[in-house]
Amino acid sequence: MIYLDNAATTPVCPEAVQAATEAMTKGFGNPSSTHGPGRAAREMLKAARQTVAASLGARPEEVFFTSGGSEGDNWAIRGACRLMRHKGRHIITGLTEHDAVRRTVDYMQSLGYEVTRLAPGPDGAVSAEAVASALRPDTALVSLMLVNNETGAVTDIPAVARAVKEAGSPALLHVDAIQGYMKLPFTVKSLGADIVTVSGHKIHAPKGVGAQYVRAGVKLPPLIQGGGQENGFRSGTENMPGVCALAAAVRACRADADAASRMAALRRHAVDALFAALPDMTVIGGGAPHILCLSLPGYRSEVLLNYLDGMGICVSKGSACKRGARSHVLEAMGLPAPVIDGAVRVSLSRFTTQEDIDALCQGLIRAHDSLYRSL
Hints:
The radius of gyration is 21 Å and the shape is globular. With about 375 residues, it is an alpha/beta fold. The chain contains 13 helices and 12 strands.
């Protein structure tokens, strides 16, 4: 099997498996308990928080563990709107956001919030200028993704943060950094964000664990009430196997310092090889090292995916959360229907090899030459 759908999820790395196993067997205590096993678990939790915080350039007390990206996005948007409700009821977001943001913003709109949804530029990213033009005195929240999960387009979040600051706006800035985490170099300070959401299963940790940065001083109301874990910000007994696995995956990613440059080189190799053989191919968006969105106009994405799947090559036609619907991201970019309908997303990881990319290129070329073309 050649797995090239890493933007959907990644295989769990051996370091994360080992850390999760140790947390389940040796460190099984509840970190809120005061006895020996509880204290040992609490030390493991503290160490994991320090690891994740260091990877974000944050202080440990600004990092809170969650069940993943969707929870983090929901918490950020609902919490920020509640916190800022006396400042205003206007939200700025993008048309190309992940559904965890889109649907939560839709929910807030149903409660009476006004929403400005910004269209992306030709590169697939929302510009800082567009954000600046959309700011209003009553803007409470700006929520944008760092890296688009379908096209790999990179939004200039630092420029967005500067635009918000220069306008004198009190709005909070939430960044969905799930696809950018451990792929692009950033810190929460360099982003200028108030809230940053990341997820474990995009960086070779298991599913069901993530982390949320909340800038000190931002008293984000909790999404989950209960026993007051995570300093009262996120109740519920911590998922210690997941948390420890996340920290182990972070350490492994940071140790592999050349991973992003390798992925970028493999992406360029794929583009060069495919353009040489398929001049009618279109590359959509881009910017992140690990995501390549391409289209063969006249072919159907589903047919291409099934053809490649038959060869043992796993790619996707967009977000794994869409379940067959046409991509709202590509529609927002104003692309022609044949380009949208022929789009395929290839996403790499630090374990992807040139042999994997060569097999993909050969498979797409064979598909192009063998399958029925509708145009």
